[in-house]
Amino acid sequence: MPQGNEVGCTVSIGVTLSLPQNDSMDKLLARADAALYEAKNTGRNRVVAG
What we know:
Blueprint: E1 12-15, H1 25-41, E2 46-49
Parallel strand pairs: 1-2
């Protein structure tokens, strides 16, 4: 990369806990996905737990 050029990058992360007795993979992924979109919609560059 040539000197003097800046590259911007943002990171949004959605995380959740797995509760084996209650969760299917679909429910787990849906919660993580919802948390990810909350992170994106509330300003980016953040981690949201769902």
